[in-house]
Write a structure and sequence with these properties.
single chain; mainly beta; 6-stranded antiparallel sheet; 5-stranded antiparallel sheet; 11 strands; globular
Length: 169
């Protein structure tokens, strides 16, 4: 017995294979061949920055860190965010007894180190951090803050806006 296919039947068979093959590649709606986006992005004083990042969870606290090296090879900036390891929005300007939420932006430029901090305990700076997903596979959220260095009339600040993090665990 010989099977013969019309061109319509061949086309239908080909389309079915392509569709079924594409479905096999997907798990929970995610194509495993798609790149995993992992890192942080933000704007500091209006200038966009993005970089890979790391995280640690210890004593119920989540610490996110990103270190950016300048093209000159010597200047470095470090962004560190410390909030509870739970979903929620954490206000960096409001004191909560027994809870410390901190965002720090440290620069090392031309041999001078400056640390800009927003912290709810000391009420230094202002801003917020939102952890929207703290799952088995991902840590996702957003942030914005104004960190302050120094005090009194010598205080300076850095503003970080449009901050996002998406870290693959």
């Amino acid at each position: 017995m010989q099977l013969t296919f019309t061109s319509s039947a061949r086309l239908l068979a080909l389309v079915s294979l392509v569709v079924l093959g594409a479905c096999d590649k997907r798990k929970n709606g995610v194509d495993p061949s798609a790149p995993i986006l992992s890192g942080m992005s933000w704007a500091v004083d209006g200038q966009p920055v993005s970089n890979s990042s790391g995280y640690t969870i210890s004593n119920g606290m989540l610490m996110l860190t990103s270190v950016v090296k300048a093209s000159n090879g010597t200047d470095v900036s470090t962004l560190t965010i410390n909030v509870p390891a739970a979903t929620g929005t954490y206000d960096l300007g409001v004191a909560v007894p027994g809870k410390s939420y901190t965002a720090t932006y440290q620069t090392y430029i031309n041999g001078v180190s400056t640390t800009y901090t927003a912290n709810n305990i000391t009420r230094t700076g202002s801003g917020s951090v939102t952890v929207s997903t703290l799952g088995v596979e991902d840590i996702i959220g957003s942030f914005e803050f104004t960190g302050v260095a120094g005090s009194g009339t010598t205080a300076t600040s850095k503003t970080l806006t449009a901050g996002k993090f998406s870290i693959r665990r």
